[in-house]
Amino acid sequence: GGKDRRSGLILTIPLCLEQTSMDELSVTLDYLLSIPSEKCKARGFTVIVDGRKSQWNVVKTVVLMLQNVVPAEVSLVCVVKPDEFWDKKVTHFCFWKEKDRLGFEVILVSANKLTRYIEPCQLTEDFGGTLTYDHMDWLNKRLVFEKFTKESTSLLDELALINNGSDKGTQEKERSIDLNFLPSVDPETVLQAGHELLSELQQRRFNGSDGGVSWSPMDDELLAQPQVMKLLDSLREQYTRYQEVCRQRSKRTQLEEIQQKVMQVVNWLEGPGSEQLRTQWGIGDSIRASQALQQKHEEIESQHSEWFAVYVELNQQIAALLNAGDEEDLVELKALQQQLSDVCYRQASQLEFRQNLLQAALEFHSVAQDLSQQLDGLLGMLCVDVAPADGASIQQTLKLLEEKLKSVDLGLQGLREKGQSLLDQISNQASWAYGKDVTIENKENVDHIQGVMEDMQLRKQRCEDMVDVRRLKMLQMVQLFKCEEDAAQAVEWLSELLDALLKTHIRLGDDAQETKVLLEKHRKFVDVAQSTYDYGRQLLQATVVLCQSLRCTSRSSGDTLPRLNRVWKQFTITSEERVHRLESAVAFHSSAEKILQECPEQPEAINETEQFEEIEAVGKSLLDRLTVPVVYPDGSEQYFGSPSDMASAAEHIREKMKLVSLKKEHMRQPEATTPES
Description:
The chain is mainly alpha-helical. Helices cover 72% and strands 4% of the residues. The strands form 2 sheets. It has a 4-stranded parallel beta sheet with strand order 1-2-3-4. A two-stranded antiparallel ribbon has the order 5-6. α13 runs antiparallel to α14 and α14 runs antiparallel to α15. It comes from Colius striatus. Belongs to the SOLO family. Keywords: Repeat. Pfam families: CRAL_TRIO_2, Spectrin_SESTD1.
């Protein structure tokens, strides 16, 4: 690191007691002489050969070797001799005499006399100088510099190859990047090492060492600084380009990966995914079949969901690239995004359409099953023979029948609506069939739907026909029960008339006029009873006709007719008895009133004996009838009114008979007095 008085560099060669290899020394000298610049070399070298610990012949060999290694650059060779001089051989070889042949001056000097030729500040402490020098430190720094130089130079070549390859055509660029894409060393590591080396060199340039002693840097270190800076600048430039190449490559790789994934999604959706949908065209023929198809469709949707998730991720990546992408990539990215979106949306629409179709089919079959069950229930109700207890139960059954028929009508209407909606959806199925002819498959579905609706319509029509027959039969049964009830009511009414006749129609009248009024009322009363009897007979005749129409035997008409006839017979007998009594009363009252109203001055007008006898006979006969009960054909007997009522009526007749007797006696008295006179 020191310099001589001519500003030439000083080269120190320390020799030791061990055998020195001239080859290694030659190589070392070549390396050391390669460090200084050409400008420094032009100023020449001063070589110090430290022979204090070596032999003369080694020193001589080294000096002679300098002639071959650096003859032109060496201006002075100082051989530092030991304190005890070498043997006499030195005298036989005078270096100064060999100056012309060697090309440089060689002097023998002791260490303490070396300052005559070189300034002490340029000599190390080994030679009595003050120059601070740490050979191991210099060696370590040199090794670091050499390593950095080698690595940075190699790295620059690699980066240049990569960067220059990226500027070529697409095929060459791809081939070059594929072969040399990754440098052999990490550029960041090399740059970090270069910065540390440069910082160390600059620190030694401006600072002292070993406690702050002033130190002038060596020429090789001063020379290393611009080399390191130049290499660092070149590395930064190439590394920046390399980073851009990597960024472009990463972007291209990312774009290629996205394109590859997009094609995977598109190929699967347009391939296996679409094929799955093409094979699933049926709608099932029952609820269970439709549910099985729905389950299969859910499995298909599950497989599609995985690819749709990839689509969402890819769409986000493409959107991010579009926001930060270059102009040259925008068209390609948008095309990929559009292609991916079109395929995914189309496939999602197909899945949704298929799901809606299966749901509509399930609803159609559900309505069809409910309607079928309703028809079965209605048919079962119609197949059971009607055996109601009364007309009210028949009315209730008829109402239930009408409600079931109305429910069937509503169910069939709902089935038609569901079926038409399903047919409309099937007609739109060809729009996403990808060219596949689905006419045959659709025809099977259409035929099935129409067949179900037609079958339900036929079953409903058959049930309606049976309902009409059953309705007519039940209405006839209602009429039958009504006739039977009315006939029974007629019997009751007739019984009530008979009872009223016996219990309330007991008066015979106080005179002939009143008795005639009672007789007229009785005839009207009989007319009412006759109408009631005739009404009952007509009703019973109607029940016979209805029973024949219904092909059944009446449960009550067989008993009602004898009852009606029996009551009517009793009423007829009672009525005749009542008429006889009233007619007898009329005759009695008329005769009695006639006698009682006769004037005494006209006694000749009255057939006294016959008339009084007739009145007495009618009166007694009437009294006798009042005590006799009405006897019916079955042997039963009934009295008019209560005994007190009959006694009252009899008492009234007896009083009138007394009046007639008094009249008779009164009329006989004049006859008795006339002969005496």
